[in-house]
Design brief:
Helix content is 3%, strand content 42%. The chain folds into 2 domains: 253 residues, Jelly Rolls (Sandwich), CATH 2.60.120; 79 residues, Immunoglobulin-like. Strands 1, 2, 5, 6, 8, 13, 14, 15 and 19 form a 9-stranded antiparallel sheet that branches. An 8-stranded antiparallel sheet has the order 3-4-7-16-9-10-11-12, with no helix packed on it. The longest helix has 7 residues. By secondary structure, the chain is mostly beta strands.
Length: 353
C-alpha cells in the first residue's frame, strides 16, 4: 500500500507539508488496485468511467492499470506502493483525468516518475503526448490540453527523448538528452497561463528549492488558453497521421502544484515505521480499525477531499482504535496520524462505500 496519497489541500496539506511549504493541489501515489478511470466502453457511462479518483474522458478500449511496486528517485521521499502502466498499444486507447482542487489560474506545475520500458508504439519524427493539463475535468467536455509532455524514439529506436508543447497547433521542443529505456526519470512540466509557455525538466539539477533553468521551453502554439487548469491527464492514445503513440511506460508519484518546490519536495517529517500504521478494512462501510504502535500518544484526524476535518480524536494510547465514520457520505477520505512526541505524521487514503 502506498504510504501517502493526498488529493486535497488546505488543512491536510498544511498539516503534512508545512515543513516544505508545498500546498499541493493534487498528489497520487496510486494506493488502490485495479485501474484508473474505469473500464467503460461508452464515455460518460457511470460508474464504469471512474475509478480510483480518475475519470475516462476519451477512448474506451483497454484500461490503464495499477500494477504492484513503485518507482523511486533519489532526493524525493521514498515511495513504497503502486504505479500505473500504460500499455503502448495503438489498438488500446483510453484518456483519463483527475481534478485539481483548487484549480490553477496563474502558473501550474506537474511532476511524475516515469519509466519508459521500450520503444513500442513510439514515433521517430513527431512526438506524441501522454500527459498534460486540461481546462476542464470530468467524464465529458474535457478540452484544451496545455503543457503536453511528448515522447519519440531516437537513434534507430535505441533511445528516446521527452519533448514539450504549450498548446495544440504548435511544434514540439525536444529535451536534447537521449534517454535510456528501463530507467526511472523525474519529469517536471510547468505551464504559465498568461505567457502561454510550457517548460520541461528531466532529472532537474535541484529539488525543493529554487527553480533551475529548464531543459526545454515551448511557446510555438498561438492558441490561447482559456485561463484555468482544472485537471491532470494521462493519455494512452495514438496519432495515426504520424504513426506515433503513447509509450509503454510506468508512471508514479504524480504531483500538481503552483510552485517548483511543491512538485519536487525533498521530504517531510514522516513517521518512519509506516508499516506500524494500518487501516482496515479499506474500502469499508464506515467502520474502520486503526492499528498503530506509537512510542507515545498520538492523534487521529480524518479529512475530506476539500481539506476539512470530519473526525478527530486526540491523545490516543491504544494501538488498536475503532473509528465509526458511518455517518459520512460515501467517497474518499484521508486518515492522518500525528505522533505527539515527535510531531511526525503519516496519512492513508480510505474509501467509504
Amino acid at each position: 500500500m502506498k504510504k501517502i496519497r493526498l488529493f486535497t489541500f488546505g488543512l491536510l496539506v498544511l498539516a503534512i507539508f508545512s515543513q516544505t511549504n508545498s500546498y499541493a493541489q493534487f498528489y497520487d501515489g496510486f494506493i488502490g488496485t485495479g485501474n484508473i478511470g474505469g473500464n467503460c466502453t461508452t464515455v460518460g457511462a457511470t460508474p464504469d468511467c471512474a475509478n480510483n479518483g480518475w475519470l475516462t474522458h476519451s477512448g474506451t478500449v483497454g484500461t490503464i492499470d495499477i500494477v504492484l511496486g513503485s518507482l523511486n528517485y533519489t532526493g524525493l521521499p521514498a515511495s513504497t506502493g503502486n504505479k500505473v502502466y500504460i500499455i503502448g498499444d495503438a489498438a488500446l486507447t483510453r484518456d483519463v483525468n483527475a481534478a485539481i482542487n483548487p484549480t490553477i489560474t496563474t502558473v501550474g506545475y506537474y511532476s511524475a516518475l516515469i519509466n519508459v520500458i521500450d520503444n513500442t508504439n513510439l514515433g521517430t519524427t513527431v512526438p506524441n503526448y501522454f500527459m498534460h493539463f486540461a481546462a476542464t475535468a470530468g467524464n465529458s467536455g474535457v478540452t484544451e490540453f496545455p503543457a503536453r509532455l511528448g515522447i519519440k524514439s531516437v537513434n534507430a529506436g535505441a533511445n528516446f527523448r521527452f519533448s514539450i508543447l504549450n498548446m495544440s497547433g504548435g511544434t514540439y521542443t525536444d529535451c536534447a538528452t537521449d534517454l535510456t529505456f528501463g530507467t526511472t526519470y523525474l519529469v517536471v512540466v510547468k505551464f504559465n497561463i498568461a505567457a502561454n509557455t510550457a517548460s520541461l525538466w528531466v532529472n532537474p539539477a535541484s529539488l525543493g528549492g529554487t527553480e533551475p533553468t529548464a531543459d526545454a521551453i515551448n511557446s510555438s502554439s498561438t492558441t490561447a488558453p482559456t485561463g484555468t487548469l482544472s485537471s491532470i491527464c494521462i493519455r494512452n492514445g495514438w496519432d495515426s497521421g504520424n504513426s506515433a503513440g503513447a509509450p509503454k511506460a510506468e508512471i508514479d508519484e504524480i504531483r500538481v502544484n503552483t510552485t517548483w518546490a511543491g512538485v519536487t519536495s525533498t521530504g517531510i517529517n514522516e513517521i518512519k515505521d509506516v508499516k506500524s500504521f494500518q487501516v482496515s478494512p479499506n474500502p469499508s462501510n464506515g467502520f474502520v480499525n486503526i492499528l498503530f504502535t506509537p512510542k507515545t500518544s498520538y492523534n487521529v484526524s480524518v479529512y475530506n477531499t476539500l481539506g476539512a476535518i470530519v473526525y478527530n480524536q486526540t491523545n490516543i494510547n491504544d494501538n488498536n482504535v475503532a473509528l465509526n465514520l458511518s455517518k459520512l457520505n460515501k467517497g474518499i477520505y484521508f486518515v492522518q496520524i500525528k505522533d505527539n512526541n515527535s510531531s511526525a505524521v503519516a496519512a492513508k487514503k480510505i474509501v467509504i462505500q
